[in-house]
Structure formats: C-alpha cells, structure tokens
Amino acid sequence: MITRVQVFALFGSLFLLFLVFYLVRTKKLRIQYSLLWFLTALILLFFSIFRDALNTLSFFVGIFYSPAFFLLSGFVFLLLILLHFSVVISRLFEMNRELIQRLSILTYKYEQLEKQK
Which of 27, 52, 102, 112 has a C-alpha 20 to 30 A away from that of 8? Predict the structure, then answer.
C-alpha cells in the first residue's frame, strides 16, 4: 500500500534527480561534482519506491529503526562531500602556490630585462 509519505518521498527524490540534471545541463554544476548527487538521488528514489528494502537493509546493518538508518546515511553522505571538498581545496591550494611562484619568477625576469634596457 502506498502512503502519503511514500508519495512525498518519491516526488522529493525525483525533484532532486531532475534538479541535478538541470544544474549539470546548464553547466552550473560540473559533472565530476554531480556524481555523488546523482547516486544519492537514485538511492532515495529506490528507497521511496521499495519501502521494505529500507527496513531489510537497516535490519541487516543492525539498526532496528529505519529512519535512524536514513540519518546515518545522511551523515555518511555529508562526510563524503566534506572529504571531496577537502581534496579539491588542497589541490587548488597547491596549484595556487605554483602559480604564485611562477608569477614571481616571471616578474623578476621582467624587471631584469627592464634594467638592461
């Protein structure tokens, strides 16, 4: 039997899926950053359609209250997003440092050439 909560969850997960598609299509969200969001939207869609699968999976993990499993999943998702952002920021920091060093070298060489004139 389909309940109102299940219908609401179905529409919410479909909305999230189409929102991610729209953001990728309009190039407001890069594909490499959207993969985790697509996966999350598909998982939400699956669990909103197959409600018993959520109960089975949460029982298999050892959680006897299914919404607590959703809370744990959300926490893991946020940790993955934070880890991904940390990797991106670290890479950008290194690229920025290298760019500043190259700019300094070019500025020094330019000043040396100006002095020679």
Answer: 27
Task: Give residue limits of the domains in the chain.
Answer: 1-49, 67-117
Question: Helix, strand, or coil here: 65?
Answer: coil
Which residue, chain included where needed, has tokens 């479909």? 14
pTM (predicted TM-score): 0.71
State pLDDT tens for residues 2-45.
788 888 989 999 999 999 999 999 999 888 878 888 988 999 89
The CA distance from 29 to 41, in Å, is 15
Residue 2 per-residue DSSP state: -
- CB burial readout 75-88, b (16+ within 10 A) else e: eeeeeeeeeeeeee
Give CA–CA dist 40/35, Å, rounded.
9
- Least Cα distance to 33 among 108, 83, 98 occurs for 83
